[in-house]
Specification:
By secondary structure, the chain is of the alpha+beta class. The protein contains four helices and six strands. Strands 3-2-5-6 form a four-stranded antiparallel sheet, with no helix packed on it. Strand 2 and strand 3 form a beta hairpin. The longest helix is centred in the C-terminal third of the chain and has 39 residues.
């Protein structure tokens, strides 16, 4: 499994999540409702907002009620009904949402994680290990730096005169 999740990659994923979340919030604030009754039994394909399309059997002479946030599409082989909130940007928001969601899924696949929660857990683990590494690395550099300085000071003559036989 890849480690996401270095800061740049995580930042990109976080920005995409933020975009998806904001667009979803804009869409969900709009409310639509549709009611109809069919004169005979029929099967209708239904697509609400950002959900996947699904089919449903509609019995004859029964009132059916559908709700959505920004867009509702009912489709039958003989007709199509599309209802939107009246906001001019609904289609654009839905398109932008799908693009951002697709990019986020691609990024998660690239790092071999199945969900944002898993990516978040891996990122937290990465940050914890990186912090521990930085502390150990700093301590090691201080220790080695001190030893190296003492070694160089003790052996200054060897390093400053390349013609010294002990140098070669």
């Amino acid at each position: 499994m890849h480690f996401l999740i270095q800061t740049k990659s995580w930042s990109s994923a976080w920005n995409l999540l933020s975009t998806v979340s904001k667009l979803n919030q804009v869409i969900s604030q709009r409310v639509l409702s549709v009611q109809f009754a069919a004169k005979k039994d029929l099967t209708v394909s239904i697509q609400k907002d950002l959900e996947e399309e699904y089919s449903r059997e509609i019995p004859a002479n029964k009132n059916e009620f559908f709700e959505a946030s920004g867009k509702l599409k009912l489709e039958h082989p003989d007709w199509v009904i599309e209802v939107s909130s009246g906001e001019e940007d609904t289609e654009e928001i839905i398109r932008d949402y799908r693009i951002a969601e697709k990019e986020l899924k691609k990024l998660l696949m690239e790092y071999d994680v199945e969900s944002l929660d898993q990516a978040l857990a891996l990122h937290e683990e990465y940050r914890k290990l990186k912090t521990e590494f930085d502390i150990v690395d700093g301590n090691l550099k201080m220790e080695l730096g001190g030893r190296l300085r003492r070694f160089l000071q003790e052996n200054r003559g060897i390093w400053t005169n390349p013609r010294n036989k002990s140098f070669s």
